[in-house]
Amino acid sequence: MTNYTNKKSVFRNFDRLDFYLITLCILFTLLIFLLFTNSSMPPFEDAAMLMRYSQNFVYGHGIVWNIGEHPVDGATDFLFMICVAITAKTGLSIENSVLLIDMSSHILTGIIIYIFIRKFLFAGRWMAFTSLLFFILGTGLIYTAVFFGTPFFALFSAITWFCANEAVIDPKYSNSLIFSVSGLILGLIRPEGVFLAIFMLIAILFKIGFKKSKKIVLSFLIIFGIIGSIYFIWRWGYFGYPLPNPYYKKGGFTLHLRGLTQSIGTFVIFSYPFIPAFILGGRSKENLQQTIFSLIPVIGFIL
């Protein structure tokens, strides 16, 4: 399937036409968003709650629900909340700050997907373009319209997976460090990002083995061990409890079968065009290895 050793020929056919296709898709997406999005639609409840935390943070009250009260870890999209607050400092409203971050994230994710398919899968423009179109006209626009932070999380999920593939090609310290830092950022955006980054690391170990991935594992452990621990200790002291609020609200390690069912259903609905490719990935040993490598983060995150 993917010949990782043929690095020099990766972008041999990447030219202006690719740029034009990406630009066309972006402009079309912006047009669709402007024409069919109801600007008067209020934010969904969870999104509105996070925006309230961002607004209080902007005005220097800390991460609180009510001004003057003790900090509450209600905005579990930690880094997204901070970015919204920083953007609002420029003079934009909280709502427009969210829209700017979400739309930018959604478009950038689409570009990364296009480049990923051309670079790592050696695919033609038609495959990259249709995949880009399928993604960029998908649910990300809905999440943006209702002010969720999901597109921001999706962006760094794509960045981290892109970096993971770079590290597989060449597991030198610089690539290992970039992958580890992007994984840490993913975990700072949402708590579940930590698990997604770990599943990506497991996929790397599966693909190239422990011996070749020693630098990657070491960088990952150092970044998460040092910076991650500093953040963990800070948030424990700031909020008064170590783990994210949903952990306590939803009963700790209790298995929620309804949530699992919804997660599997969502994966099937949004990934159905690509399911045949995963099935065909078992035709040979090399293809099967690449398919399993790609599925480890997906299946791990679903479960």
Record the SSE blueprint.
Blueprint lengths: L15 H21 L8 H14 L19 H11 L5 H27 L4 H12 L2 H7 L4 H20 L3 H17 L2 H21 L1 H26 L5 H5 L7 H15 L3 H6 L4 H18 L1
Helix pairs in contact: 1-5, 2-3, 3-4, 4-5, 4-6, 4-7, 7-8, 7-9, 8-9, 8-10, 9-10, 9-14
At a glance:
By secondary structure, the protein is mainly alpha-helical. 73% of the residues lie in helices and 0% in strands. The protein has 3 domains: 13-148, no CATH class; 150-246, no CATH class; 255-303, no CATH class.
Please characterize this protein's 3D structure.
- By secondary structure, the protein is mainly alpha-helical.
- It folds into three domains: 13-148, no CATH class; 150-246, no CATH class; 255-303, no CATH class.
- The protein is 73% helix and 0% strand.
- It has helices at 16-36, 45-58, 78-88, 94-120, 125-136, 139-145, 150-169, 173-189, 192-212, 214-239, 245-249, 257-271, 275-280, 285-302.
- α7 (150-169) runs antiparallel to α8 (173-189) and α8 packs parallel to α10 (214-239).
- The longest helix has 27 residues, at 94-120.
- The radius of gyration is 20 Å and the shape is globular.
- The model is unreliable at 1-10 (pLDDT under 50).
